[in-house]
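Re: that chain you flagged

S.,

Sorry for the slow reply, it's been a week of failed gels. I finally had a moment to sit down with the sequence you sent. For the record, here it is as I used it:
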Amino acid sequence: MAEQIIGRWLKQNHIPRDKVVIATKVRGNMGGGPENEGLSRKHILESVENSLRRLQLDYLDLYQAHWPDEKTSIEVSLRAFDELIKQGKVRVIGASNYMAWELMQALWSSDRNGWARFDCLQPHYNLVHRDEFEHELARVCKTYQIGVIPYSPLAGGFLTGKYRRNLVPNTARAGGAKRYFTEHNWIILELIDKLAKGRGMSVSQVSLAWLLADPIITCPIIGPNSLEQLKDNLGALDVHLTIEEKSALDQATAWREKEN
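Prediction finished late last night. Pasting the structure tokens below so you have them in one place:
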């Protein structure tokens, strides 16, 4: 559905193709039996054709493996992705939800076989969910110059400030953010809120600005539901945290290695 909407919007508004970056994913079941999912050569090649048809485009700028496929060897998947790049249907490939060892395995395979490699990673990363990316993935991305486009940069809405200790609306979206409702995170939210008010910014803008302050981050993936939210999120581009502000947020949200 999302691809169809974007495809119609691009065509109806005569948007120049070189003015937009179009990214989509492959891995999940888009209808049919279990053979219609995964990262097999057949599924990858069929899925890209379906995505291009829905988007009404000739090529994708970024095509990502949504998550690993334990039933298919990484060599099979990468070879299929490499074919698509050589055919001009995809420009760059990336991965999402890969652990460090899985990402390294993919990089080694590409290097060994001379295939296109994952040049982009889409991890779950934000101010209150740092360890998953920072534990090992951040070092891999920095060392091999892999672009990072975090999803859930506002922690399912928790880092927008709309949820408070004693004010949690009974909505579907609130249910998705409940994982962050801990005493530690409420204290963090209060710190962000204080910093935001002192600078005349929103909690969302401070949270996104923290990500953007890291050179390793290419672009957080935002999900606004209204034009107002979009304008607010884009306002983070003009926010430049001071060294003291960045340090305070780093220290307040730091994670520790788990002891054996």
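What I noticed first: The first strand starts at residue 23 and ends at 26.

Talk soon,
D.
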